[in-house]
Amino acid sequence: MQMTPMIESFVMHFGEMGSRWGFNRTVGQMYALLVVSDEPLSANQIAEALNISRGNVSMGLKELQGWRLVQQQHFPGDRKDYFQALGSIWDMAQRVFEERRKREIDPTLSVLRDLLLDKPANAQEAYAQSRLKEMHDLLESITTWSEELQRLSPEKLNTLMKLGSGVGKVLDMKDKLVNKR
């Protein structure tokens, strides 16, 4: 596959962003290439387009499969494996968020729960536990909220996002009404 300047610009940028989202630059570039490709690509096509080794592509594809972001395909009469991005852009965003939650938030919640079960030995630990409880409660709320969001259809999510700051204004009005009573 020959990348146009526009596609190359996107692929390179997505690689840089991927490193911030939890996978390395090359894996991000591979995924971006599959997202914008209108046909499934073989590992050789990916390696050639990105000018990377076939082994690097193989490892990257395994990682993307672990994130459930790509699927493997076979075509009759062709022994090569082909790969394509799974689902819509909304599906991608949800999978990335879900995987990051599993890898980052869930382990932190587990540690916080364990630490909150311990009886504080002194005032310093009691204070520390109160802060840990705040952190735990915030992460629990975020997790619950995100799970509820993931159950919404893309259309409802899009509507919710368009409401944006309007929701904050409604809440501010509610607070003013409650405080006037």
Automatic annotation (TrEMBL):
Keyword 4Fe-4S: no
Keywords of the record: DNA-binding, Transcription, Transcription regulation
All residue ranges annotated as the HTH marR-type domain in the record: 22-80
Pfam families on file: MarR_2
Record has DNA-binding as a keyword: yes
Superkingdom of the source species: Bacteria
InterPro entries per UniProt: ArsR-like_HTH, HTH-GbsR_regulator, HTH_MarR-typ, MJ1563, WH-like_DNA-bd_sf, WH_DNA-bd_sf
Family that this chain belongs to: Belongs to the GbsR family.
Protein name: HTH-type transcriptional regulator
Organism: Fluctibacter halophilus
